[in-house]
Write a structure and sequence with these properties.
This protein is mainly beta. Helices cover 11% and strands 29% of the residues. Bound molecules: 2-acetamido-2-deoxy-beta-D-glucopyranose (2 copies). Keywords: Signal.
């Protein structure tokens, strides 16, 4: 009997995203940071402006415009931490997330971002570089925004787009929403890590140059995209939320670690969960 139920669950494609009673394709939350420290792991971050302001997040840009420089959405940060910047649409609903790096950050022995990554996806603005992902189509963010009903039914977003250029409207690229779609894309399948998911990296191979190592990864659980993250080849110590994997753990996330990474040392990553149940993310 139990065997039959297990078989039924495993063979039902539509049910694959439904694990441990959790619908992993429903983006019902927004959490950041993988850690073994319970105080910093899977920190929930706000998804509306009122929630953000009541939790000590403040506007990053002066004025009230929705578009700020080359980015869409009102930007909020907390405690001056560039590791997590939240973007909200004209109605105050979550629309994206960003991380920033000071151009003159030191030490930066690898000189990140490498030239091929400048502007795509590391967009310069003022004294910093930013990497930006959106959760809704970019043409919606500063025009109509989302309605309350859309926010309630869609949750954190209706898709994922990476800003891969200086114009967020024309340069944002859609991320594959299912693992099947990712497998036939330029994203390269990496390894499963429980409490994260199956990692995908952009177009990586053993003998690549690290100059072309795209600083984003994707996370699939139950066959669907429900998280992603950043991977910067420098050790940024100025954020409480960013992660610092050492060279010894790269092989836990990639099937074949590019040889060029052998001398990278400790890098900086951030896992971003689009659900409220990161602990159910067992690939
Ligand atoms: C899971 O959530 C997605 C997105 O909200 C929805 O389309 C799907 O029908 C849900 N699946 C189940 C099994 O509840
Ligand atoms: C981003 O843009 C660069 C430069 O045009 C391109 O090589 C790369 O494939 C793009 N990445 C994605 C994820 O679209």
């Amino acid at each position: 009997m139990l065997g039959n139920i297990a078989l039924l669950v495993l063979s039902c494609a539509a049910c694959q995203a439904f694990i441990l009673g959790r619908n992993q394709s429903h983006w019902d939350g927004l959490k950041v940071t993988w850690s073994i420290n319970p105080l910093t792991m899977f920190q929930g971050v706000p998804r509306t402006i009122p929630e953000a302001t009541s939790h000590g997040w403040v506007k990053m840009d002066t004025g009230t415009t929705c578009q700020n420089g080359p980015f869409l959405g009102e930007r909020f940060w907390k405690d001056g931490d560039l590791g997590v910047i939240l973007l909200f649409d004209v109605h105050g609903y979550i629309a994206g997330i960003q991380a920033g790096i000071e151009k003159n950050y030191s030490p930066n022995p690898n000189h990140f971002p490498f030239p091929p990554l400048v502007s795509h996806p590391m967009v310069a603005h003022g004294t910093r570089f930013y990497i930006t992902a959106y959760f809704v189509p970019t043409d919606k963010i500063c025009s109509t925004g989302r309605t309350e009903t859309e926010f309630r039914t869609q949750g954190t977003g209706s898709g994922l787009w990476i800003q891969n250029g200086t114009n967020p409207l024309t340069d944002s690229r859609a991320i594959p929403m299912t693992i099947e779609a990712a497998r036939v894309s330029r994203w390269t399948e990496g390894k499963c890590f429980a409490t994260m998911g199956v990692h995908f990296w952009y177009n990586i191979h053993k003998d690549m140059s690290c100059e072309n190592f795209y600083p984003m990864f994707l996370l699939y659980n139950g066959g669907v995209l429900n998280g992603f993250g950043w991977a910067f080849m420098m050790n940024i110590q100025s954020s409480k939320r960013l992660e610092h994997p050492g060279q010894n753990v790269y092989a836990s996330f990639m099937k074949e670690v590019p040889t060029c990474m052998n001398s990278m040392g400790t890098i900086t990553t951030l896992h971003i969960y689009l659900t409220s149940s990161a602990t159910a993310d067992n690939c």
